[in-house]
């Protein structure tokens, strides 16, 4: 096992650790996730059908409308949120999404987190520092964990 340290800028302060779920593609909130189940439902997304609940979600950016933050807030309210976020390129919608989800989040790292971290790695976010423990079974992308409908998520 080896350890990688990435440093960046804190979006939401805090400390958390858990299994990484890495997306190399931007994530859409409205129509891209099912907040009631914490699952990516965008049919053409590399992580289609994968559950992000309880994972440290690593992704390059947010895509879509300003509703992005609202959908991630709903994951918090539903108990299906990721436990942390590592965002490659921050935007107003992903920053607000991290804030309303109330999970530790970091951006502007000294390495591309989507290349440096693999799904399954053990990740610890401690404000602006991301520690990655490689060798814990990391593979990317993850296999779907449940069946999902291709129907768009309904607003709650």
Keywords summarizing the entry:
156 residues, 3 helices, 8-stranded mixed beta sheet, 12 strands, Glucose Oxidase, domain 1, globular, alpha/beta
Describe the structure.
The protein is an alpha/beta fold and 156 residues long. The protein has a single domain, classed as 3-Layer(bba) Sandwich (Glucose Oxidase, domain 1), CATH 3.50.30.10. Helices cover 16% and strands 31% of the residues. It is built from 3 helices and 12 strands. Strand 11 and strand 12 form a beta hairpin. The chain is globular, with a radius of gyration of 14 Å.
Summarize the model shown.
With 156 residues, the protein is an alpha/beta fold.
Q: Which bin fits the share of residues in helices?
A: 10-25%
Low-confidence stretches: 139-150, 152-156
Summed up, the domain count is 1
What is the name of the CATH architecture?
3-Layer(bba) Sandwich
Strand percentage: 25-35%
Order of helices and strands: EEEEEEEEHEHEHEE
The main sheet comes to: 8 strands, mixed
Q: What is the top-level CATH class?
A: Alpha Beta
Fourth-tier CATH superfamily name: Phosphohistidine domain
Radius of gyration: 14 Å
Inertia-based shape: globular
* Helix-strand makeup class: alpha/beta
**Cα separation of the termini:** 43 Å
